[in-house]
């Protein structure tokens, strides 16, 4: 039996012990206390982070988390018994969200998964654990009212400590680092509860594309988690460095601490229906109405201090709308009395999307192993055995990818200034509002907020150090271009047929035509990969878009037909903006016009960052908890 730490060379690698008995899990309302100090709606990435920190800071205050899902094992993105890398294997539970047909991309529908499990989407995501550029957060902060007296600040310097606090990075073994040329800076990480590391395995063709990127002039950066990521980056993945099992909020912020927190209760298999203000929204905190998934029984719960909604970009606006928070006309159509008129609830919806390129090799390199090796029974058996060793080894230690480029628009295309001027012109002439969803384009506050967002995004696109494109690579013959700062906006609205079900999601992909200028610039940039010496030596030849696509119009048609409509980063539906700019929460995450009610999840972002959302969700949770602790201490 191995001890709690394994020492290899100069490294001390932690081993996460089996979770302790989860004795605070409740499955019936009769098991709950008469009241709680804090009630958190949603046991996902951010909600569990807040609960952990509150119960730690206030051992005499009680915290209840209400979660729709259950406590489940959450396998990694590529774990046994999956035998095909890149496929979809066993997973924790999730909601399936399919958007309405999207007019500007040939009526295609986006497909999104959202965690329905203790741990939320951190228990089902691709484990790519990058952070945004510092310029994203500084831009958010200026949008949300930076400098207003008494309010929290959200610039990079303000949030960076919480990124560090949330994660525990373990450096790779010296032999692994040397083999793959991994680089990192341990000083940008802290002793957090969520583990991250580099895998001890990469597919054999991995460095071919990295060499091509370097040849294209993309500079490698030693570390991309310190705020600067206009570079070729190594990205950690959210897994235990010894066992290679997924590290997620359900472990780090619940099962790892619940035995020592008698003030921390978790109610599973219950839905938060709404919050209720019997004496009006200025007399809080509200009651929390919940529904048992077993028998649909409704029950009101009492919070003595505050209620925090942390149900995610889809379900947070649904809870708020059911509670009477939203645009008057939309609530009226749903037969719901208006409690606070907030047009921003369920508006401003965004997700990352993009098209890409593919190629083939006429003279492929002597690359072994590639994912095709998993078809060899002996190789597969060894891969499974390696995954179960301590420390784990082999292909199952690799998630989706841990290598990516992040490039500013100015370094992508000579037309960058034209694109930026087009954005600024639509703000100046008032035409930007015409690209907003019809149900709020006439609202002055929403238009004002959208114009400010576009102005900030134009500033980001002008910045020679702020990335516009992300492209990841692990193996194969294709690359996707992620548009990091889309201009188009969608909506999340209650399902009027059944208001308790997954809400109706309308993606606005491509509704602002300048997005297609950016998509096209990104694809043209990636087409340069196959023209590099690094890949031409293997006979690389472009397959898509391909030689038949010659004009910009043809390229746009290709993009519309080939886009990934969601990279599963939904956000921004309860934005942290001033109320007169369409905001739902202020910089302290308090819902405008409502006492004792806050929101803490990815719905509060004003617009998408230049990163995947997992690390952002943890940092928002850490900062939200810090705000609450300072308030109640």
The termini sit apart by 44 Å
The portion of residues forming beta strands comes to 15-25%
Shape: globular
Derived structural class: alpha/beta
Number of DSSP helical runs: 15
Low-confidence stretches: 1-21
With strands numbered from the N-terminus, the spatial order across the biggest sheet is: 3-11-5-4-15-26
Query: Radius of gyration in whole Å, from Cα?
Result: 24 Å
Number of strands: 26
Mean pLDDT: 94
Please describe the topology of this protein:
Blueprint: E1 5-8, E2 11-14, E3 25-26, E4 36-41, H1 45-57, E5 63-66, E6 94-98, E7 111-115, H2 134-144, H3 156-166, E8 167-170, H4 174-180, E9 194-197, H5 206-215, E10 232-234, H6 249-255, E11 264-267, E12 270-276, E13 287-292, E14 298-301, E15 303-309, H7 312-322, E16 325-326, H8 328-333, E17 340-341, E18 356-361, H9 377-387, E19 403-408, H10 416-428, H11 444-462, E20 467-472, E21 478-480, E22 482-483, E23 491-493, E24 504-506, H12 514-527, H13 533-536, E25 540-544, H14 552-562, E26 597-599, H15 614-632
Parallel strand pairs: 3-11, 4-5, 4-15, 5-11, 8-9, 15-26, 16-17
Antiparallel strand pairs: 1-2, 6-7, 10-19, 12-13, 13-14, 18-21, 18-25, 19-20, 20-22, 23-24
Compact description:
The chain has about 625 residues and is of the alpha/beta class. About 25% of the residues lie in helices and about 15% in strands. It is built from 15 helices and 26 strands.
What does this structure look like?
- By secondary structure, the protein is α/β, with parallel strands linked by helices.
- About 25% of the residues lie in helices and about 15% in strands.
- It has 15 helices and 26 strands.
- The chain has a 6-stranded parallel β-sheet. Strands 10-19-20-22 form a 4-stranded antiparallel β-sheet. Strands 12-13-14 form a 3-stranded antiparallel β-sheet.
- A hairpin with a 5-residue loop joins strand 13 (about 285-290) and strand 14.
- It is globular and about 75 Å long.
- Mean pLDDT is about 95; it is low at about 1-20.
